[in-house]
Amino acid sequence: MGRTDPPSAAAPAWPAALARGAVIAIGYFGLNWVAHALTSSRETYSLLWPGPGFALAALLIFGVRYWPAIALASVAYSLIAVGAPVFPLMLTGVMAVMVLASLVFLRRRRFEPPLTGVRRVIELLFVTAVLMPAVGAAFITTILWIAGQRAQNSLFEFAVVSVSTIGIGALVTAPIMLTWMRPPRPPWRSQRVIEAAALAAGTLLTGLLVFGGNPGRMGGVGIGYLAFPFIVWAAMRFGLIGSSTVSAAFSLIAMWGMAHGRGIFADATLISGMLSLNGFCVALTGTGLLIAAAVGEARRGSSALARSELAYRRLLEHASDPILLGDGAGNFLDANARATQMLGYSREELVRMHVMDLIPVEDRLKNPPRLEELRSGRSLTFERRLRCKDGRIIEVELSASMLEDGRIQAIYRDISDRKKTETELREAFSLLQATLDSTNDGILVVDTAGRISTWNRRFVELWGIPPGIMEARDDERAIGFVLDQLRNPEAFVAQVRWLYDHPEETTVDVLEFKDGRVYERYSQPQTVLGVASGRVWSFRDVTERRRLEGQLLHSQKMEAIGSLAGGVAHDFNNLLTSIMGHTSILLEGLPLDQPVRENAAEIQRVSERAALLTRQLLTFSRQQVSEPRVLDLNQVVLPMRQLLERSLGEQVEIALRPSAGPAFIKADAGELEQVVLNLSINARDAMPLGGRLGIEIATVRLDDSETAVQLPAGEYVRLTVSDTGIGMDAATKQRIFEPFFTTKARGRGTGLGLSTVYGIVHQGGGGIAVESVPANGTRFDLHFPRVATSSAPSAEAEAAVGAERGRGSVLLIEDDEMVRALLEEALAAAGYEVMVAQNGRDALERADSLLDRVDIVVTDVVMPNLSGPDVAERLRAIRPGLPVLFISGYTDDELATRVRPVSDSAFLQKPFSPATLIRKIRDTLGSAHSA
Predict the structure, then answer these.
(1) C-alpha–C-alpha distance, residues 264 and 206, integer Å
(2) What is each CA distance from 929 to 109, 120, 882, in whole angstroms?
(3) Structural element, H or E, at residue 408
(4) Taking the CB of residue 329, how many other CB atoms lie within 10 A of it?
(5) Spatial CA neighbour of 21 closest among 72, 56, 57
(6) Helices marked H in 151-226 — which ranges?
(7) How far apart are alpha carbons 260 and 469 in whole angstroms?
(8) What 3-state class would DSSP assign to 317?
(9) Running DSSP on this structure, what letter comes out for residue 213?
(10) How many beta carbons lie within 10 A of that of residue 676, not counting itself?
């Protein structure tokens, strides 16, 4: 049935509840006792039964929990008034049924006190004038008939009287209680009090005149309508309280008059009088209550509308967003202050404008107002451009809808800054993407959930990931795709998982691929306001860099080995110089028929072979000074056979075929030896199971049709080096002369051998042709410009020159005591005056006393403290143009540049014979004198 207590009434404490119950019981008892005064003088019927109306109102106002007070008061009243012991129980039960039925009906209608509104008045009138009397009369008459207390013909009369008395009682008591039990009102003004007093006086006088006068003089029932102006007055001016009070007053006066045989209802029979009285009370009370409720609703509606309009106006003016009101045709009706600030127009200007006046001309066709959609009831949110009063164009977001009164409300938001920010963000993102795409590193960004946020083009190129996987933005699928490419996929996945568990970590590691690629992987967290929001992965292909680093490391290792070899060759050359010099002196002093002469000659030959080995060491270490001269290529290549046999191993067969006659070219012998050695080692590596190495020298003539070596027509000496190895394909053959290019396994080659060969041959004006077929070997044809005759002196000529006596003085600077003693003896034996210095510092200290008598300086290149070139520069500073002959077992690049022969200096490579030294001194002095 719903709630039985008032919605806002909290249950009072039991003393207060007991006191309230007592008041309710006393009020109920007193009202019923007053009803005795209104008993008809002609009958014993009571004209007013206020109990049900009072009980209904009390239970509606205070709650159903107070029903015991009503019940006790009803029993007490019945015992005192009737006296019969069974009658109180009957009356109490009837009252309970009436009140229960009324409560059920009102609760289902969600009726709540106080009495306000026309609907609630109608519901109360139905309950008090129809439902409650009908239920009460039906139960009372049924009980009396069953009990036999009334004759059959008096039951109808009793039922009519019961309906009337119950209805009148409920109409009198219930409205008064429901209207007066309201929150207190402010005190009335004096004018209001005077008007209320006048209304009360008029009500009393009219009631006594109409319902308390002599019935014979009243002139019929119609005079009762004199009460209606007063009820209308009360309803219009004093509302429900006034109308319920005035109607109750008229009803009580009418019942009092009828009970005492007075008034307009006194002459009628009991039934007709009761029905007339009941109808009068219903009409009078209903009219007053309905008028008061209608007036109250109208006033509240008007007040609510005014408050709503005021609230809307306040909301409009205080809104943070610009708001414009318009009609369905697009004319502006109102605008708030923010709208005038945004657009620059005053409110008076805006209300004279149309929406098209704010739209730029260029936008009116492509983006017209959407009035039809708004008139159809749709709410729209869209963007458009507006022109302000000062000509500025702003971007706004517009939310528009139609109000209940047909006006269109549009809320604007200036999004110019947001649009500018969006444009800047798009430009920044475009720049970022372009930057990412321009870098050579592959970039991948993922969020904390493992979803791919962005990537660059290089990342896709490095990993070869299909577009579908990247578009799905699933990091797991991307990882699954790349695992098959890696040598150690487990470590890759473990690193990724570890970083997901440690979002703040930064890592660097290396990824190795099955195909030989090497990537460096960098990873660092992406943070927003100090909180990790994802991870940035960077991948760099370092395959080529790693290869070059390996080549550089190998080159550095070879350079270190070369330095060691050069040092060994230097010391060994000093020893060989001494051996060869003393052997030469020994041979000169021995008669031809001496048996030991052959032994000395053998020592000379072995020394020369040892000198060849040192030259090869210097060539290997690139510390051999390039000294091109005319030589026979046969005489350079043929002595290398033993060196090649030791270098290539027994599994390689060596076939040397010299040319039929001399093969003169102008080149450096050491560089030619390096060329042959490099090509031979490459051939050996191409024949891992052994094979045949062919070296052939021939004199050929090239004409203009010979394009393989791209050389001018003429005569050339061709050096052919061929093998029976694995050969090369076309792609490899195109790159073999590139520096650091090699087909050998890591650590097996530097890739510098063939590039060195290429540089030596082309520096001498020659060319190279290569023929190779996979599995059928390789052939290198090296062409050197042929020199017609040899300008080198013959052995006899050298001997004759060596036999001549020398003239002049020589300053000899040599730090090796053994070599210094040999050279001093040889020069003195040749007729030179020799002045000796142990090192460069010693020579400089003695320069003032010796330098005027010196014809030529012979100095070692590498000496402690001061090198030979440094000493020569200081001596030339004292004596410009002083001839200098540098001698050395080796030299580095800087010294090689500084001692390179010029007009007044020369270089002689150790080891050498005394005759060679003397000839070089004469040549140098001759050049200086001719200059």
Answers:
(1) 12
(2) 142, 144, 11
(3) strand 408-414
(4) 11
(5) 72
(6) 152-180, 190-211
(7) 105
(8) helix
(9) S
(10) 21
Q: Please, how many CA atoms are within 13 Å of residue 41, restricted to the half-sphere of its CB? A: 11
Angle, vertex CA 625, rays to CA 624 and CA 630, nearest 5: 105
H helix or E strand, kind and range, residue 397 = strand 393-402
Is the overall model pTM greater than 0.70, yes or no?
Answer: no
Q: What angle do CA 365, 369, 374 make, to 5 degrees?
A: 145
Predicted confidence (pLDDT) per residue in 429-484, tens digit:
777 777 777 777 888 888 877 777 788 888 787 877 787 777 777 777 777 778 87
Three-state secondary structure readout of 447-505: ECCCEEEEECHHHHHHHCCCHHHHHHCEHHHHHHHHHHHECCHHHHHHHHHHHHHCCCC
Structure tokens at 743: 């087909």
The list of the chain residues with pLDDT below 50 reads 1-9, 40-42, 151-152, 747, 795-803, 892-894, 901-903
Q: What is the 3-state secondary structure (H, E, C) of 259-302?
A: HCCCCCCCCCCHHHHHHHHHHHHHHHHHHHHHHHHHHHHHHHHH
Tokens matching residue 685: 């590596």
Tokens of 875: 């001596």
- In what helix (H) or strand (E) does residue 538 lie, and over which residues does it extend? strand 531-541
Q: Where are any strands of DSSP class E within 758-824?
A: 767-772, 778-785, 809-813
Q: How far apart are the first and last CA of the chain?
A: 139
Cα–chain-centroid distance for residue 831?
91
How far, in whole angstroms, is CA 377 from its chain's centroid? 41
Helix (H) or strand (E) holding 897: helix 893-898
For residue 435, give Cα distances in angstroms to 326, 440, 454: 50, 10, 13
Helix (H, G, I), strand (E, B) or coil at 856: strand
Structure tokens that stand for 389 in this block:
């009063």
Distance CA 702, CA 769 (A): 13
Alpha-carbon span 183 to 173, nearest angstrom: 19
Helix, coil or strand: residue 333: strand
- Nearest in space to 63 (alpha carbons), one of 118, 107, 124, 26: 107
SS3 693: strand
**Across the strands, what pairs with 332?**
326
Measured in degrees and rounded to the nearest 5, phi and psi for residue 519 equal: -115, 140
**Do residues 200 and 235 make contact, with C-beta atoms less than 8 angstroms apart?**
no
Tokens of 886: 């540098």
Query: Which among 353, 365, 296 has a CA at the least distance from the CA of 329?
Result: 353
Give yes or no for a contact between 176 and 229, defined as CB atoms under 8 angstroms apart: no
Question: How is residue 69 written in tokens?
Answer: 């007070």
Q: What is the pLDDT of residues 156-203, one digit of tens each?
A: 666 666 667 777 777 788 888 888 876 555 566 778 888 888 888 888
CA quadruple 608, 609, 615, 621: dihedral sign: negative
List helix spans (H) across 183-269.
Answer: 190-211, 227-259
- Phi and psi at 752, nearest 5°, equal -105, -10
Two structure tokens written together for 274? 């009761």
**What is the structure's pLDDT at 696?**
94
Compute the distance between CA of residue 155 and CA of residue 764 in angstroms, rounded to an integer: 154
d(CA 614, CA 185) in angstroms, rounded, equals 130
Nearest alpha carbon to residue 572 among 839, 890, 812: 890
Measured between alpha carbons, how far is 867 from 862 in angstroms, rounded to an integer? 5
* 641: CB partners within 8 A, 6+ apart: 654, 656
Within 13 Å and on the Cβ side, how many CA atoms surround 719? 26
Sequence-distant (6+) residues with CB within 8 A of 412 are 321, 322, 323, 324, 339, 342, 386, 396, 397, 398
Answer for the pair 579, 607: CB distance below 8 angstroms, yes or no. Answer: yes
**What is the residue type of 773?**
V
**Residue 379: partners with Cβ closer than 8 Å, 6 or more residues away:** 399, 400, 401
Is 241:180 a contact under the CB 8 Å cutoff? yes
- C-alpha 131: how far from chain center: 74
